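Workshop exercise sheet. Pairs work together: one partner reads the sequence aloud, the other fills in the structure field after running the prediction. Swap roles for the next sheet.
Pair: D.N. / O.F.
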Amino acid sequence: YSNTNKLYDLIEAHAKKTMADKEAIQRYIDKSKSDKLYGIIVDTSGLNVHQLSAKISSMFESGGARAQIRLAVMSFGFKYGVPLDADFVYDMRFLPNPYWVPELRQLTGRDDAVADFVLSQPGAQEFLDGVIGLMAPVVDGYVHEGRRYVTLAVGCTGGKHRSVAVAEQLATRLESARVATFIVHRDLGRE
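Structure field:
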C-alpha cells in the first residue's frame, strides 16, 4: 500500500504542478495582451524545425521579392588559418602570386591591376565558371532544407591578392534575386 500510495501522490503532485504551469502561462499571455507587450505568438507544438522556419519567415516577408539565401564570400590567408565557419573552402594558390610582381606587391586584389593580373591567368575563368556552376544546385538544396546562410571561403597565401580578387568576382557573379551576397576580406590589411 505505501509504495502504491507514494506513486499516486507523485502523480497528483505532477498534475497540480502542470496545471499551475499552464495557469501561469495563461496569466502571462493575458497580461501581455492587456499590456500590449506581445507582438506575435506562435504555437510551435507539432511543428518541426523546417515548418517553424517557414512559418516565421512567412510572417516577416514583405510583398516584394526577397533573397532566399545570404551568401558570405570570404577571402582569407592560409598562413592565418582556415575559417572554421566556412561551408566551402577554395584554394587560389594554383594561380601565380602577384606578390612576386614588384609593381603589384603593395596593391591588393581590390585594385584593378591585381584583379586583371589574377583573373587573366590560365585556369582562373574556368575556376570561376566551375564554382558558379557548383553553387546553383547547392543553393537550391539549401533553400529546400531551410538554410538561409552559406559561407564560401577563398584562400591564398596571405589573403591580400589572389583570394581577394577572386572573392570580389565570385560575389558579383553569384548575386541574384535569390542570392544576396556580401564580402568579408578577413585578412586584408593584416600584414
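Discussion prompt: The longest helix spans residues 2-35. What would you look at next?
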